[in-house]
Amino acid sequence: MTTYLQYAQQLAQELISAPPSGISLSGLTDSNVNSQLTALINAFPYFGDTDWNSAHRGALSNLLQVNLPNNGIAPHPDESGPWYAYYRSTYSYNGSASGYANAFFPGAVLSASGSRVASEVAAVNAGMNGSWWGGYAVPVLTDAIRAQVSVGVDANKLTTALGNYHSALMPALAASYLGTFKAGFNPTAQAWSSLVNSGNSSAAATLLDQKISSGQFTANINQSIAMGGDSSNAATWFLFNLWIALKALGWSDVDGAISRYKAAGMSIPGQVDAVKWWNGGYISWYSPLSGADLPSSTITASMPESELTSYTGSYMPSHSSVNEADGYSHSFCEWGSLALYKPDSGSCFGGETRVLMADGRVRRIAEVRIGDMVQTAGGPRVVVMIETPKRAGRKLYSVNGQQVFTTATHPFRRGAEGGPLRYAVSPWGLIDGIPDMASQGEGVLKAGVVLAGMRDGRSAALTVQRVEEYESSDPQEVVYDLLLNDWENGHGLYYVGGPESFFVVEAETANPLSHPEVTTAVIAAMEMSHGSCREHLGEPHVEIPKVVGKLDAQRIARQARKAVRPYLGGKPMPPTPDTRPTFCRLNGEWNAHSSMLEYYLVGRFGRWLRSEIANGWRCHGSGVAGDHLAVGLFDIEFVGDPAPEPGRDVEVELDLEGVFRHGETASVSLSVAVKPESAWRLVIDRTLDLGRVGELPSRTMLLGAIRQGGQLLGSFRCAVSGGESGRGRGDHFIFHPNGRIIGRICLDQRLLCTRELQEEETAAQRWRQDPGAAQALAVVLGRQIGLHLLSEIEAHSSVGLAK
């Protein structure tokens, strides 16, 4: 099979051999010009050249690093204890970094390639200056942190920012290519510099134009284009490099030349036709920037701080030095001035939202009481619980100017066939908080969306005309959600809005029956910790996400695997906790502590628990260079529309960029069935063996593609890490070919020897045949989470108790 490198070499040789059209211009007969131009053409990268990709992305990464704002590093927020053991701890950063840029990228300087790319891009768009690159760096670094550290991130805001910056870069993408061509990719940079320094660039441009115009070269290009497939891709790429070369050599009208070649009979694909080639029309060779492109050892570094604690009744405050685990990352994403993507917590409705009652009357949701009857599509249902958390700074949105004021993540039901089942202003936030809602699709609540509803007492499809922010001046405002009888057997639906028409909405709460083992684990954790939460955490909406966010999932998993072994060896199974949905109540009423604890445990651990329990057979791995690189694939979640077509398998392909593997070097893949009831969430739970690898380069990339019926749905990239533990489980964004983020894939990486791979196959079969094993691991995992929670709660409140 012909490779892209071979195609490139063939086209280069055909161009070099093509005779010029015979015009007589000074310098064209100079052998130096011919040899120098030949060297430049031979230096063209082939399609997919890993050295080229590294050079181009390295220049872009350099621009992000040197322009990341160097805002001051924010220390851990102040803490205070409960009234009966009051204390106040304040923190100050005492590390050596002058700001975030200096902390994450110490010693970063503008490279020659970065400088050249910046100037070429700025020539296209003067607004893409250092400030613009610095703005781009913030979401990219946030994504890098999100993939490695448990930080609170609003995926909706983050994906929107990454998509917007990518879209802005596209019209200048060819300019960034030109900058790398001149200064970043050594083969072309050296050949181009030789022509420029010798004063032969103008003569070489003229000679190149004449060679491109050769009838024989035109015929060769046309033949390659007509063959389709890899041949056509290689020819398109080669033409793009020719236009770049003409531009680099100072040809004044490349678009005019392209039109001339086309008029003379050359088949030029639309992507690289006149104007489009320079203005972002050719993007299939480029993957959008993500966290994988911005490495930093500081992401997992501890941050040194000074702690000053004052106690009630004491005149002697205590001083100590502390190291906040992953502190720089938490500071960047959660505490400091660059924390632009912090998530909102939970979702509900503002108190002025109107609810349609069973008797036909309309009532403010703030006036609805437990025991009231509300109208639903299935008839009247009883309100059994009302959630009433504080709004806590969350924005509210009105829909079509009606009496409905929703937080960003509350789900509305679709009103037309096909498409996502639910819509929210922030669909990513919805499935982050309630993972079991992901399987049937979440779309963006915006103008044009058709929602389910009621008009004049009859079911109706309601088109969204506008969604607007609703300003509320009450900082202590409470928001509301209704749970209806039998809610645990399905998400309860009710009507909000009015006065003439109403929207169908769901109670935004996890369905405990969607993943019984996950529910078992969450309740086991809550049984151990909710009493301590109520006793020691005075502000549950503020303090519970802090303590849950500090839990180390990998450590919990390691300890749980040890603790569950006796049960798998014959010891009687641990008792299963009562999974009836009463854990959010206290004395029959909704309780903020238990509700917030459940919400953050489900959001933080729901997906992780599902895959950890389903894959309890997996081994840790020996982690020796030369072993097999095993990539574990867990879940793919798509957000928005369209999703993969049900009934047709999806292919997931993986490959390593620029890494020698012993034996076969072809990509590996697997097929995943797309079920009608869960097209937006594909559960894989498989390990792919990418073959034996030697010492991995520091910036090895794992490249992934997701296809259906031969069509590329999306692609993803993530950095590969060797070592004993490999790279922990993490979510990586999936980019549509147009650069839009359409989903995410959860995976991890391990180095396994041949024996371990074989043992895993046997262990997986046994595990799946023993449902009791999964249940035992669920209980043990829940208990481990509970134990770690108790420890964090105790640490959170122990300073006040110590006096």
How does the major sheet shape up? Answer: 4 strands, antiparallel
Please state the structural category.
alpha+beta
Q: Numbering strands along the chain, what is their spatial order in the largest sheet?
A: 1-2-3-4
Can you count the helices?
Answer: 21
Mean pLDDT across the residues is: 88
Strand content: 15-25%
How many β-strands, per DSSP?
A: 30
Uncertain segments are 23-29, 799-803
The rounded Rg comes to 30 Å
How would the global form be characterised?
A: globular
Question: End-to-end distance, in Å?
Answer: 75 Å
What report would you give on this structure?
A hairpin with a 6-residue loop joins β8 and β9. Strands 1-2-3-4 form a 4-stranded antiparallel sheet, with helices on one face. Strands 5-18-9-8 form a 4-stranded antiparallel sheet, with no helix packed on it. Strands 16-15-20-19 form a 4-stranded antiparallel sheet, with no helix packed on it. The protein is of the alpha+beta class and 803 residues long. It contains 21 helices and 30 strands.
List keywords for this structure.
disordered C terminus, 4-stranded antiparallel β-sheet, 21 helices, globular, alpha+beta, single chain, 803 residues
